[in-house]
Design a protein that fits this description.
Strand content: under 5%
Radius of gyration: 18 Å
Shape: elongated
Largest sheet: none
Distance between the termini: 46 Å
Helix content: 55-70%
Low-confidence stretches: none
Number of helices: 4
Order of helices and strands: HHHH
Length: 108
């Protein structure tokens, strides 16, 4: 192997439970920070929009908590639609996802 040859590192087939928990913690903390910012912004003419944002953030927080449960019971990373393994790349981007891309398209 020469110095000019790029090294290709094999990606793991799945995230470890520790990696999954770390990603989920980050997502949860981000959403909690968003909720705090909305609450601190106060009320005004944008109250309806802020309420919709809070509803969306709370929905995602519920999905994150469900993902923690899946990590705990060993079903994390398995598509709820077709029971196949969700690709690591998808879990890295959206660690609380319940579905592979094809099944997500049919449920949306």
């Amino acid at each position: 192997m020469s110095l000019d040859t790029p090294r290709i590192e094999a990606r793991p087939e799945r995230l470890t439970a520790h990696e999954a928990r770390q990603r989920l913690e980050h997502e949860r903390n981000s959403r909690l920070t968003q909720l705090q910012a909305i609450d601190e912004a106060g009320h005004g003419s944008e109250e309806q929009m802020m309420s919709a944002q809070k509803d969306t953030i709370n929905r995602v927080l519920n999905e994150i908590e469900a993902a923690f449960s899946r990590v705990h019971d060993g079903s994390y990373g398995i598509c709820l639609g077709c029971s196949t393994r969700i690709p690591v790349e998808r879990l890295e981007i959206l660690p609380y996802t319940q579905f592979c891309v094809p099944c997500q398209r049919t449920t949306a």
